[in-house]
TrEMBL record:
Residues annotated as signal peptide: none
Family per similarity comment: Belongs to the HEBP family.
Biased composition (Acidic residues): 24-34
Entry GO MF terms: heme binding
Protein name as it appears in the record: Heme-binding protein 1
Length: 251
């Protein structure tokens, strides 16, 4: 995400502590160091495409999230209805219960910069910079709440990036060490969602919002200035899965 994402990171500290003496251990440490360097270089390249610099202290979280890449807890929800067009899935309605989220708000010049910088903060929180001092676990999707200008032709600069706390931490969320991360209990959410694939930029988001409106037609049941972009996959995946969420008005 340069938008740098939760799937590629962890622990320099743990690996250093695990080292012992002996040639075998030294070789293993060298291999681990090479792997850290390779992963960091990869994510540095991803970040540069979004005009974001990747700090060296992100090397640990990157390794840890890579190791836990397959262990991702889905945010709980209930499917209310599914809709098809030309016999293909077009969109679906979902209800998400109230829950606790770790949120960061950024207002950088580019959408990609805002979500990338926010996600790096959330990665550090997930990977130890919290009051329990351990890896919390990844959940998907990561949400990016956006707002359109009154003209509806551009995104407002401010973006809220939100990470759902895993089930075991919902009742007692670990406290972030970063004061820019806020634990928020978000109200239940009723949304209409549509999948799209590829990179998420202001241009692609505005296009997807327009396509979704064409599909839905005229309706006043959803908000027109606030939307959510849900990210499910690693940003290094060219055709990664995303969703546009239209937020339904309370009944």
């Amino acid at each position: 995400m340069a938008r740098i994402t939760l799937e590629d990171l962890d622990g320099l500290g743990e690996e250093a502590a695990a080292g012992g003496g002996g040639d075998g251990d030294n070789e293993e440490e060298e291999e681990e160091e090479e792997e850290r360097g390779r992963l960091f270089a990869h994510w540095e390249a991803v970040a540069s495409t979004h005009r974001v610099s990747l700090p060296r202290d992100m090397a640990g979280p990157i390794v840890q999230m890579t190791r836990h890449n397959q262990a991702r807890e889905p945010v709980p929800y209930v499917t209310l209805s599914q809709h098809e067009k030309c016999k293909e899935a077009a969109y679906e309605e979902r209800w998400y219960p109230a829950g606790k989220w770790a949120c960061v708000t950024k207002g950088e010049p580019m959408y990609e910069q805002s979500i990338s910088m926010s996600f790096m903060k959330l990665m550090r929180y997930i990977c130890k910079e919290n009051s329990v001092g351990c890896y919390l676990g990844m959940t998907v999707p990561v949400l990016n709440e956006i707002h359109l200008t009154k003209e509806g032709t551009e995104l407002e600069r401010e973006v809220v990036t939100a990470y759902y706390l895993p089930g075991e931490f919902q009742q007692n969320p670990p406290v972030p060490t970063d004061p820019e991360i806020h634990i928020t209990e978000r109200a239940p959410l009723w949304v209409i969602t549509r999948v799209f694939y590829g990179m998420t930029t202001e241009e692609t988001i505005l296009r997807e919002i327009g396509l979704f409106w064409e599909l839905l037609g005229s309706t006043d049941t959803v908000l027109r200035e606030t939307y959510i972009v849900a990210a499910y996959e690693n940003p290094s995946i060219p055709q990664r899965r995303n969703e546009i969420w239209f937020i339904c008005r309370a009944k």
